[in-house]
Amino acid sequence: MKDIDLSEIFDSMKKNDINEVIIKTGNVSYQIRRGILRGVNNIAHPQGSSGVSANNQNSYEIPISNSQFINNVQANVQEEISQNKNYFEVKSPLVGTFYATPKPDSSPFVDIGNKVSKGQTLCVIEAMKNFNEITSEVDGFVREICVKNGEIVEYGKILFRIETI
Length: 165
Prior knowledge:
Elements: H1 3-15, E1 20-25, E2 28-33, E3 38-41, E4 58-61, H2 66-83, E5 87-91, E6 96-99, E7 115-116, E8 121-127, E9 130-135, E10 140-145, E11 152-153, E12 158-164
Antiparallel strand pairs: 1-2, 3-4, 5-12, 6-8, 6-11, 7-10, 8-9, 10-12
């Protein structure tokens, strides 16, 4: 494999947030990984490096990307939501484009962890050049924002999960 091919692969992986690529050519296989993984180490260390035998398990850290971290956090939130019935789901009342901010360069209406009150604006949805404010129907804390800024949303799509007080 040429050096230029590798640099193009690395750039593409970074640009597209890809963490692992396996390339097979003939009898040769290349495996390229980037980011951090968390796991358990069952590998014996050379004498003097850590003094741990192959029978012991050591935890280790390998860097993971932001998208993997976000996916892990969302999985934890989903598990918590399934166990806790005190979550209110704010759903889109119309088809349109979700905007978390009132203006492109301003801060979002709400962030995860913010306390919200009934009637407080959570976002706007633009449909046919009309901006419709979506407000909270309950008092509570924002636990999950389910869509990204600028994403097209369908009717009934869950936008937020709010832990009610």
